[in-house]
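User: Could you walk me through two proteins back to back? I'd like the raw sequence and the structure tokens for each, with a short line separating them so I can tell where one ends and the next begins.

Assistant: Of course. Protein one, sequence then structure:
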Amino acid sequence: MKKIGLNTEGNWYKGNLHTHSTNSDGRITPEEIVRIYKDHGYQFLAFTEHELYTHNRELSDEDFLVLPGVELSCNNPDPWRIYHILGIGRHAAGEHPSAENGFSDKQRFPVRKWEDLGSVQTVLDEIWQAGNLAVFNHPIWSRLELTDFIDLDGYFAMEIYNYGCAVESHTGLCIDYWDSLLRRGRKIWGVATDDAHFALEDYCGGWVMVNAPELTIKAVTSALLEGNFYSSSGPEIYRFEIEDGVVKADCSDAREIHFVTYESFGNSLFARSGESLRHGEFRLSGEELYVRVEITDHSGRTAWSNPIFLKEE
């Protein structure tokens, strides 16, 4: 029996899902940003301005896709807790099946007033109802404990690595919270992003590699929703699957390969001095709820697969 964690039959597209321009608090224009990402080998980008939904359709071409997007906020003033949620558009302009609910280009939103956690849930619900994918952003930077958001739902992914937060204040990595949710049976994907503002060198450091049949809004966001991508700050993952109880991964030159599981312990592989790993495998016990793989290269950069769930309800 085989379980595929990463379908590689389509095309690989490199993208950043979290970007700010001069349309909010970024330092450079959308046109300049697209040029930077093209020069760094990206194929798609989402502009996620604070409280401003934008399409930027004119910046897309046959080789580069701009996704509609926004970053919405609802903050608890006492104790100070920050809730930032990305909305990534799943439809091109005019394609949303319920036009009265879809967000429009250049639509502005207020920062939502905090009443209780239900205020944040309302934001998540509105994002989904308007035909967008919701991403829960940078929990460590936001000063959140797991108990501050564990009851929220409606987001398909969490930022497990935010390069901008890592550069600014070493608060970009959020693997423990992700595993805590996965251990509770929550099916949430992990994304690496830039959260680029361009005041610092906070760009082109965290990305997703999406496998999709074509470079369109529908194809890319469908692959994201299905989890057919991996996240990275450097390494590449070529294969991730389970066959006859053995989980296998192929990757670019690596110093370490870690198979992370629960309830059982996983397994870690380390390259010998002066050598590299390009393949790893590990026999599962049969008690695991999920398994995912992390690849670390010789520069300490990491790639993260999404989990394969082993006990489907």
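----
Protein two, same layout:
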Amino acid sequence: MADVFGARADSARRFAELLATSGVDRGLIGPREVDRLWERHLLNSAVIGELISPGCRVLDVGSGAGLPGLPLALSRPDLTIALLEPMARRVAWLREVTAELDIPVEIHRGRAEDRPVAARWDVVTARAVAPLGRLAGWCLPLLAPGGRMLALKGSSAADEVARDRGEVRRAGGGAIEVVECGKSAVDPPTTVVVVASRRGDEGRRPRRRKDR
């Protein structure tokens, strides 16, 4: 765990305690998840930092109990992270937790499809929010030119990509890649669908030569 969270390992432990107590009591996480919080939730979320360059601006869409946003913030303090969550009770809990743990993140209440924040993010993350095609329609418009969506998915990620590739393309997605993160930290590794935004590509495309 220290290899992932470094100097903030104690804060990660406290976050796990809060998830297991008030997080369960207030319906943010199921009681059956308590025994597997580390592998399935905290480490599973934090290791996606492998895919994010230093200093990036990251928006976590549908953050819920702060996953993956808060473990990512704890493991990568160099990132600028914001959480986007539509439900008031979850937003209240996130504000309490981030205040107690002194995690410097922005918290916004709203739905991604309503565009409650400016399209300025290098990376947009999402975990257990929606099918890939619908998720792309919500998340890709929030990216800055050249940004990427990181969707945490399960073992059927490749099938989901095959099914939704056209919808992702129509939403503005470019290259799609399925990758595994955290092979040395979590078992099984975290599966992430990485979707590059095509926004801004127009200016880099060579002009078609006109027939003379």
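The chain is about 35% helix and 25% strand.

Let me know if you want the two compared in more detail.
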